[in-house]
Amino acid sequence: MTLKLFVRLALSAWLLAAATVFAAPAPRTETLMLSGTGPDDAVPWDFTIDGGMRAGEKARIPVPTNWQQQGFGHYQYGYDKGPRAADTGTYRHRFTVPADWQG
Q1: Rounded distance, CA 51 to CA 90, Å?
Q2: What is the DSSP letter of 46?
């Protein structure tokens, strides 16, 4: 390896390391919980389901939850030899983006 090639490689490695060390810090990640984190702080969402119990009924159910536990759809817990129901639930929730997130 010639001295000229060695210097180029060393300089390239140093520049890459310097760019990594002196790079701007990543922006801080902020989280806005649209649902609660558990049963004690659940948030009501608009809900409807296309099959099973209360099909087509518009309601507000807490999120997080299980729609079967709220009386919607086909109850499918436990051992079930029959075919699985293909209920589709639709959720909707309105929220406001924090002002400091705009832009």
Answers
A1: 11
A2: E
SS (H, E, C) 13-64: HHHHHHHHHCCCCCCCCCCCCCCCCCCCCCEEEEEEECCCECCCCCEEEEEC
Strand partners, 9: none
Full-model pTM: 0.66
Contacts of 45 (CB under 8 A, 6+ apart): 35, 60, 61, 62, 63, 91, 92, 93
Pairing mode of beta strands 89-92, 43-49 = antiparallel
Tokens of 86: 């293909």
- Which one-letter DSSP state was computed for residue 55? T
Note the pLDDT tens digit of each residue in 16-74.
Answer: 777 776 667 778 888 889 998 887 899 999 999 999 999 999 999 999 999 999 999 99
If one counts every other C-beta atom within 10 angstroms of the C-beta of residue 71, the result is 13
3-state class of 70 per DSSP? helix
